[in-house]
Amino acid sequence: MPQFIHRADQISAAPTGSVDPVQAEIGALVAENLEYMALLSRCARTLGLCATLDLEPLCERIVESLCVETGAGTALLWRVESDESDGLHLAAAWSASGSAPDLRARPLVPPAHDAGASCEPGCAAALSGEGDSAQAAALTVHLRHEGRLLALARVTNPAGADGFGARELAAAEQIADAAGPALSNALRLRVAERRSFRDPTTRTCTPAFFDALVATELEKTLRFGRQLSLIEGVIAPPPAPGVSSSTSVPRAESERFLERLQQVVRGTDLCAADGDGRFRLLLPETDALGAAV
Fold it and tell me: If you average pLDDT over every residue of the chain, what do you get?
């Protein structure tokens, strides 16, 4: 009785000079089924991306999906920040070994600054090698939505000796097609949350929302080796003879101060006030000197 093999590459070849049509058909069917199963796996992953609305977990799922579906060992994701000076912000990293790589061990160059990587206009992903080598040692993935670039990913350490090929490129493009809209939805939700947790007059954050963001930014700082500053202050009246230093300023003056403060800080900075004249400023990507300035 003929034995049906479940992998196309394990089917024994017919003798030299002849081609067994049954073996050839079985091989074609097995290869087609394997490709279909891989497509189903990618579809399940893309549905998971679209169902994730929290920005940080979404970035983690994107790099994990890119690694699993392309057979890569490492993936890094830079998110585009329009109000950052360099425009790119390292957001997530994933390794097939089960632990994220040490991002502070060596300098990481974003894909947009890598001369070896190229991407045709409109493409979601592109192969790149080292120098003039034809071997595809890395994948550069562009995550877009409605024509806007939202993030760049760098996928490296391919499992195969020949590097990445057309199959891995197609898988990365399918992940990118779903990750772009998912990122856009997560960003819109974050904007809506920040608006709902702000004072309608001064536009400062509520203390509870501010504390939650501080915890998130501290985790990023410890993991990615970034800079972070926190400023605490008290809105107090100027000293005057016969007036106690504990006297608080009128609410109208306090609101005017906070409104002015919101105008001069950067778009990435966050301010919170408790209503008693105390306020706090969270300054991401800022060292002590920058905070003092």
Answer: 75
